[in-house]
Design goal:
- The structure is a single chain.
- The chain has 178 residues and is mainly alpha-helical.
- It has one domain (2-150).
- The protein is built from seven helices and no strands.
- The chain has helices at residues 2-24, 31-35, 38-61, 68-100, 105-122, 127-148, 153-177.
- Helix 4 runs antiparallel to helix 5 (105-122).
- This is Adenylate cyclase N-terminal domain-containing protein.
- Residues 35-151 form the Adenylate cyclase N-terminal domain.
Length: 178
């Protein structure tokens, strides 16, 4: 578990370094002024909080006498930090994409895929809890995509209807067969 927390702390630090580098090289603006924009500040604060939480969790689980009940609580805290990081990344990418035509819902979807992988493969939680976490991560991404990208709403709804239409036909066929 300490290796997973080290990986997550490294990920948060790497994202922080990338954020700082992007803010330094952006349009000759002052660093603090650019950092003060809400989307940048929210991501920076979230990254700092995540690193602090991961460091505290490493200190907490390093003591002897840890059992699986404690590990489940630690995993729950990690899932909450991953959700907070996902929301902050989604907001950051949404506002960045409006200015530079990069990021967007697809870029945020890669973060969601990574966080779902973390929940399923690397955290010591039951499969039921990992599935619930995956559903919550996916719903948070979909809600964020619909709220943060209203200009792409028709295309997203068309994609959702393309996915749901075959399911609807199968449901109707099953009802008619009965």
């Amino acid at each position: 578990m300490t290796h997973v927390l080290g990986l997550l702390a490294g990920l948060a630090l790497a994202l922080g370094v990338l954020l700082v580098l992007r803010l330094i090289f952006e349009d000759n603006q002052q660093f603090l002024r650019t950092l003060g924009r809400p989307e940048n500040l929210s991501l920076a604060v979230t990254l700092v909080v995540c690193v602090a939480v991961y460091a505290a969790l490493v200190a907490a689980i390093s003591r002897p006498g840890m059992n699986e009940i404690w590990l489940a609580g630690v995993s729950g805290i990690v899932l909450v930090t991953l959700l907070a990081l996902q929301v902050a990344l989604n907001i950051h990418l949404a506002f960045e994409s409006r200015e530079y035509q990069s990021g967007g819902p697809l870029a945020a979807a890669w973060a969601v895929c990574f966080f779902i992988y973390m929940a399923y493969a690397l955290l010591p939680i039951r499969l039921r809890h990992a599935c619930i976490a995956g559903i919550i991560f996916s719903l948070a991404h979909l809600i964020g995509a619909f709220v943060l990208y209203p200009s792409q709403y028709p295309a997203m709804m068309e994609h959702v209807s393309d996915i749901l239409y075959p399911l609807k036909l199968r449901t109707v066929a099953t009802l008619l067969a009965d």
